[in-house]
């Protein structure tokens, strides 16, 4: 088993105590464009989600992990989605909640650990990410971890006033 413990952070399964953290992220309208969210989530729905978050990735086809610093404070979330065991691939998304904690190396460490977990433990052949062309920090993060831009989805997302393009990035396990 690959360690999900890094030098400055660790990744762990979601716990019932993460309710308010997940609630704050899921209901922050400034972040909705990152996840294609269009409606708020109730605490009740998030509580139900957390109760079922222990499902095996092979059953749920997704995995959400908390990113925690070594003081046990939750600082973000990292997700595997569209887990496809037949084709041995999954998508990855990541969010560090507070802007002042971004670009401090936490996302880089979390992404590196999750990609390693995907390749060494889940035996995936490839992982991918969908990133807005305007999200320069995420593009730098993923490209710095060996992801390559393999396509541009034109007019992919509509923000209520205009369409924006989205890059598809991919990393294949060598």
TrEMBL record:
It comes from Winogradskyella rapida. Residues 9-170 form the N-acetyltransferase domain. The keyword Transferase applies. SUPFAM superfamilies: Acyl-CoA N-acyltransferases (Nat) (SSF55729). It comes from the Bacteria. GO terms for molecular function: acyltransferase activity. Signal peptide: none annotated. Pfam families: Acetyltransf_3. This is GNAT family N-acetyltransferase. Keywords: Acyltransferase, Transferase. Its EC number is 2.3.-.-.
